[in-house]
Design brief:
The structure is a single chain. The chain has helices spanning 40-45, 61-70, 94-98, 172-185, 230-234, 237-249, 275-295, 340-356, 366-369, 414-431, 455-464, 468-472, 474-491, 497-503, and strands at 16-20, 23-27, 30-31, 37-38, 75-81, 87-93, 104-106, 133-138, 144-145, 153-161, 188-202, 254-259, 265-270, 298-301, 315-323, 382-384, 391-393, 403-405. The protein is of the alpha+beta class and 507 residues long. It is globular.
Length: 507
């Protein structure tokens, strides 16, 4: 057997002869960091990896290790949303995170109320007998800097699995993932675009005192009636600059920002996209906006109804569905007319959203927003470009045909609000539910409320809907209903100012 010819040897820095296009040329090898010679082709191939410049997301732990080192990150927050959408998790040195440390949280952490209390077991609501661990599994596509921290810090959103590696069905991110998978099994891909409203308010350390609008750069307290006012936005220029700066550092893209009608009420619109990615963005935006506001000595609140007499804050959800193979909007026929699936999606929303309302209006306060005459829908009607309906179809080209769900409030967990809304549309599409006729009249000022009127009524409707068992999961239904009943019982222990004002001396 003939021996394979060996390449010519050369010492580092010593010219070697190479042949190109029939001519002999002299080349000096490049010197690597170690001082050893590196062939010119190897040097050319050693281009800077694109992921190092990514503001948000890498492929795996190997890339994460380089990404963190590039930014000299010292600490990593491993976070996950609980049932309320609050970030829970652990912070650790970056070296520990990249050491593939196993991370876990107790299961009971996802079964307590917004006030941190653990409800009594009732009905199907049961705690794990041993309060076993749930394992945090980082989603590397979500890694980003935490720009408001003084030390270089990164955050990464995690999923939760049990000790056997199975997804925990009652945790919010997994609930939404399951709904998206149902669409994919049908050859569809849901597309969403959330709009999040919130209030800026003066610092309030005593909950017995009402919230008040903050002082703007004019030195005066902000008043209502500022809808779409550029001047209203300019009152908080420096704060808004920080919101944009923090968002850019995290790879969060804001589509538009406007001033809403309430006093110091703002709205941020996000670009449309994958439901899980958009839920992650809303989750991170809430943290970002709160931190930016605190930097300016005010609060940002996502309460549905924080100030009496002012409009409530919504999280409107624009939804469409495309064919996974072609990318075509299934809400439109080839000739541009509304498709049957479009009408069935709306039919599902009308039929099922009232029963799923507790996932979109999760607190006692949420139902203070859903009152007639306050610019919020109190119905399950639909119409073309009709903002008084629960389900509005904006004017658009056929390729952008979509349905806006105007019922969710901004206090909702974004993962659960999106899961509920998409699940209702999915049921309509798979069951062939026909909607009623669209309306062009005002339907939110007649005093009629065709939705659950309060938290307990909403929980009862939620538990009674058998169709939710498969699309949302039995374990989630039982857990969520048990937590909401517990929160209502906690609320009932609080005596309100209204009771002291009107009952103290009159009854």
């Amino acid at each position: 057997m003939a021996k394979r010819p060996k390449p010519p040897k050369s010492e580092a820095g010593t010219p070697s002869r190479i042949k190109k296009n029939g001519q002999v040329r002299t080349a000096v090898p490049a010197i690597g960091e170690s001082g050893r010679s590196v062939p010119p082709l190897a040097k050319a191939a050693r281009k800077r990896p694109a992921f190092l410049d990514s503001r948000r997301g890498v492929a795996d732990m190997d890339e994460a290790r380089e990404w963190l080192a590039e930014r000299r990150i010292e600490d990593v927050e491993c976070i996950t949303p609980d049932l309320a959408g609050v970030a829970r998790g652990k912070m650790m040195p970056a070296k520990k995170f990249t050491g593939n440390t196993s991370l876990a949280l107790p299961s009971a952490l996802f079964m307590h109320t917004i006030s941190g209390e653990y409800p009594e077991e009732t009905g199907s609501f049961r705690y794990s007998p041993n309060d076993g661990d749930l394992k945090l599994v980082p989603d590397f596509s979500t890694i980003a800097e935490v720009p408001w921290e003084t030390d270089p810090t990164a955050a990464i959103i995690c999923d939760l699995v049990d000790v056997n590696g199975k997804a925990v069905g009652y945790t919010p991110r997994n609930v939404l993932k399951h709904v998206v998978e149902l669409y994919e099994e049908k050859g569809w891909r849901p597309i969403v675009a959330p709009e999040i409203e919130f209030y800026l308010v003066s610092r309030n350390v005593d909950p017995d005192y009402p919230l008040t609008p903050p002082i703007g750069r004019s030195g005066r307290q902000i008043q209502s009636g500022q809808s779409y006012s550029i001047g209203g936005i300019n009152e908080f220029d420096e704060l808004i600059d920080d919101i944009y700066h923090f968002s850019d550092r995290q790879g969060l893209e804001i589509d538009t920002l406007i001033h809403e009608d309430g006093a110091a009420q703002l709205e941020i619109n996000l670009r449309h996209g994958n439901p899980i990615e958009l839920a992650d963005q809303v989750f991170m935006f809430k943290r970002t906006i709160r931190e930016a506001a605190l930097k300016h000595d005010i609060y940002a609140t996502f309460m549905a109804k924080p100030i009496q007499g002012q409009p409530g804050s919504a999280m409107h959800i624009h939804q469409s569905v495309v064919d996974r193979r072609t990318g075509a909007n299934v809400f439109s026929n080839p000739d541009g007319t509304p498709s049957q699936l479009f009408h069935h999606f709306i039919g599902g929303m009308q039929r099922y959203v009232p029963a799923a309302l507790v996932m979109m209006a999760p607190y006692v306060n949420s139902y203070r927003r859903l009152t007639h005459g306050m610019s919020a829908p109190t119905n399950n009607a639909w119409g073309y470009d009709n903002r008084t309906t629960a389900f509005r179809v904006p004017t658009s080209e056929p390729a952008a045909r979509r349905v806006e769900n105007r019922l969710p409030s901004s206090d909702a967990n974004p993962y659960l609000a999106l899961a509920a809304s998409l699940a209702c549309g999915y049921l309509g599409m798979t069951e062939g539910i026909e909607p009623d006729q669209p309306t062009d009249r005002t339907v939110n000022e007649d005093g009629v409320i065709s939705l659950p009127r309060g938290l307990l009524e909403a929980v009862a409707a939620f538990e009674a809907e058998d169709s939710f068992q498969n699309v949302l999961g039995r374990e989630f239904l039982a857990t969520y209903a048990g937590i909401k009943r517990g929160e209502f019982e906690t609320f009932m222990q609080v005596i309100s100012p209204w009771e002291r004002e009107f009952l103290l001396l009159n009854v």
